[in-house]
Amino acid sequence: MKKMKQTMKQIISLLLVAFLLAGCTKVTTEGNGTADTSGTSDTADTGNGNTAENAGSSSANFYFTAEPAQLNSTLVYDVPSQDVLRACEEGLIRLNEENEIVEGLAASWDVSEDGKEYTFHLRDANWSDGTPVTAADFVFAWKLVLKPENASTEAESLYVITGAKEYNQGEGTEADVKVEAVDEKTLKVELANPTPYFLSTLADPTYYPVNQEFYEKQESGGTNLYGTDADRLLYCGPWKIDDWVHESKVVLVKNEEYYNPEQAKIAQINLLIVADPNTAYNMFSNGELDMVELGTADLINLAQSDNQDLLTFCGGSTTFMAFNVQNEIFKNVNIRKAFSYAIDRQAFCDNVLKNGSVPATTFVSSVVDGLEGKTFQEMVQAEFTDDTSVAGAKAYLEKGLQELGLTELPQVTFLIDDRESIKTQATVYQEYWKQNLGVDMEVISQPYKTKLETQYAGRYMITISGWECSFNDPISILPIFQTDNGNNSMLYSNGEFDNLLEQASVETDPDKRLQMLKDAELVLMNDCAVAPLYYYYCTYILQPRVKGLVRNSFNDLDFYNAYIE
Amino acid sequence: METFRYIMKKLIISLITLWVLVTITFFLMHMLPGDPFLGEKAISEATKEALYAKYGLDKPLVIQYLTYLGNALRGDFGESLVYSGQPVMKILMSAFPYSFELGLYSLLFAGLAGIISGIFSALHNGDKKDAIAMFIAAIGISVPSFILGSLLQYYLAIKLSNWSAVHFGYQLFAVEGWENAAQKIIPVFVLGFGELAVISRMTKASFLDVIGQDYIKTAKACGLSKFQIIKNHMLRNGIMPVITVLGPMAASILTGAFVVENIFNIPGLGKHFINSIQAQDYTMIAGTTILYGSFLIAANLLVDIAYIFIDPGIKLGKKNA
Amino acid sequence: MEFSKELFVKESYEPDSQDVEEKSITYWQNVWIRFKRNKMAIGSLAIIIFMILGCIIIPIVSPYTISEQNLNAVNQGMFKDGHIFGTDSFGRDLFVRVWYGTRISLIIAFSAVAINLIIGVIYGGISGYLGGKTDEVMMRIVDVVISIPHLIIVMLLMVILKPGMVTIILAYATVGWTGMARVVRGQVLHLKELDYVVASRLLGSGALRIIIKDLFPNAMGVIMVHLALTIPRAIFTEAFLSYIGLGVQIPLASLGTLVTGGSAAFRLYPHVIVIPALFMCILMLAFNVFSDSLRNIIDPKMRR
User: Fold this and answer.
1) CB pairs under 8 A between A and B
2) Is the whole-model pTM more than 0.80?
3) CB-based burial of residue B164 (10 Å sphere; 0-12 exposed, 13-18 middle, 19+ buried)?
């Protein structure tokens, strides 16, 4: 008994000591914390709106919802990584705020008559370690993207280069890829077809240069660690990474070796990782963030009630309903039309999304330019004459059933994944189908990766999908409806559509080419191979002190001309 | 000596448990349809094959399993399939201190406050004071942490802190982060509050049991003071069932902090438990499971050891006829 | 002498107060009498019954359905246009959704409790009573079960079965019983060494008799409390799964999915979150108070 008493005493006193110690650390760290913030006034991590807005402080705080996967430009696929790379690396060209092509590391370029041969003349620029950026760095990087063992998921975007597809798929050799360094500052590229959009894709991080010598030094125990930490990367952009605290933040500082050191006007950019959108909003309210995206209608309402100025930009993606056109029911075009037109897109965008997204009746997003000052979307829309009214949907359904020889629709399933945004949409669509078609859907919700697997295996009837134009050309997304395209989970196959795309790819006259693509999309729309729902717009708010920040579909988040007032 | 042998035996059994756990998890996660490289954009067969080859996923599952086990025994848990080039151990170890600190403070807060309020309730069983204490505890288990967290973040870290910043020039609480007390207090409270209720109720129940025992009556009859009775006689017996839940609680508080870490943006382990599974990042799933399993098993081991010291009535591994 | 029937008075049979079988009858009768006297117990039971009836009846009689939307009247306040609790972000009637959500949450909770009780008590009882090697093996199995990542099981079940309520219940069932098993085992381990159990054993009572007669009633208090904790745990598991997107199917609702609106919604239209949260709180409180009172009534030690 006595022994027990002592043990108990010990345990309790231990607990007490531990608690006191915990209390002590709190007090001391708190003291350090305040000392820190007063010492370095320009880091602006005080969380206090007043200090963050100090004049002359040249630091800004932005955020990502997830940690950059890795900053190896030959592998990069995720948005955060692309945004970081856009700030601290540079390609041959850049896109300005109007999405126009301007010089990047290439000071000038020549294009051959047939539009198949590009010669770039590089400017004098250095890597952050002082070594010059050469044409060989581009050749090395591009071939690395294509190297089969590197297993880059973005390799396909380089297939426009002669020999690239063959090399990547193991049918050709590296030497056959037609990209070469003529001399230290001259890069020559040969394309398989005249590709009018080729230049604009060069702003994509996949096309950034990589210094071979440095890259090879990052080899460690069978894996290459290039781009996995701040010191495992060379920089050729206006900023460089000073500190990368994984899962927490990426700190960018001016790259003094950049060819125009004056370009970076914000001396320090803190890119924090904040997963919860509500937390991000609260941080913005407290002045801890300079920009926040409003992903839900609730947050948009909240920002409005807080009298914030809402800004929007077209994200470039189209959200659409994909039909499995090989399915017994959805092989019928009228059934597809019924399900497509039964949705009141305008009411959905206005009342549920609220983020400025625009209802879509044609596939390619309105960010893509067309002819004669019109957008490509307007070109297609002008010739698309289907009755897309909600009122007509029921008639399509009846017609479709008749054609299928059915008296009533069998059970229809609707495949979705577990993300909140998708659930929100599905809730509304499901109800529209019920109200306007009298159809009770069975919703099958699966975890995201499982849903993709199910979708690509063709085990679905209807699902929600989205596709983004990554460059200013319809060909950026149209091929997903080509027969045998890896992304064609709709299993759509139409000879006319395939032909038009084929012809467009070899057409040298850009105007004629666009007309062909327009015709191709019309085939798609008249077939109702897809039910476009809306063109995604992103709504965000910005602290008034931040000026010149570019946010648009192809330059997602671009600090290039940004400055703090 | 007997105690030492007992602990050694437990330790060996724990290792076997861990191995079983790894095995089950390994095969379970590979049963999930889909793979880590799936995205909205399909990747070509050739690239997929290359990726599989790169991470050794092209080999038969049993071979993968044996390879993994062999590497794990040498302390190599592979690299993440999503964050390529980042070793799983490095990711987990950088997140661990945050979660550990958060979990430790929460458990201390929940444990101390819970035991005290539980004893308080038991002593005042049935009257108003008990009702109030139990009501507070009930709120603890009735409000989900994502609501409590969001509320406190808004009212304390924004409203109250802005007010205090204006009036005293000092921000009381921060919205997010994990560096100083202003940032730590709210998350610790939110995470601990739910567990506090559990501990408080367990304590109350077991103390009521103890109060009814004869020896307490005897002690009372002998004229011992209330405090002495609690300290000398009740704590030891009353705390037994509480300790039973404390072990798993320690493990779950460490790993189940996802919601709190998410709301207060603490770069802890929580998100890895959720994200790795959703992303089907096999090596990360296995790594987090091993970490979680080890922690749980260690916590249970501690509970078992605590049992020996607190209740000598338990015979060490001897079968009772 | 004639014996008329009137001469015989039927003597009522006084049972021997030492008779064990009879005593157990009076024990449960006793519980009932004590229960009726306990205001807290009656009150909490009334709330629980009211909630159960409400969640059965209201979704049936309501003029609105849980899925009917009106995108022109979203996030309406309380008592607007016949919507008692207003509408949610899709313009759906919140009143019927909250009651329906309570129904789903209660089903999940009761199923969880049933599973916990049955598996946990049996498993923990056996493990604790037998002790030794059996106990060791059984507890290691619990360790493994507890530490298997919960989410993998939920996701696997979602793929194998149809996602929804059943999946959530099954997912909870696969790991939920372990807590109860541990608590019961700990309690039995402790109780079986006590003098009265040892005495009972020496008097020749069988294992089953000891478990049922001696151990179970004495462990009842801890079991009841743990059960009361299981209900919120189960509802919270559901709420957590909703938080990460694995909750009940759309357009169904559970209290969990209703309260996951986030702080933005809370600041703009608090009733949308507060009402379901209140329902949750009241329900929890009722279950807690009920189990607490029941514990005081049932526990043999409390009857002194």
Assistant:
1) 182
2) yes
3) middle
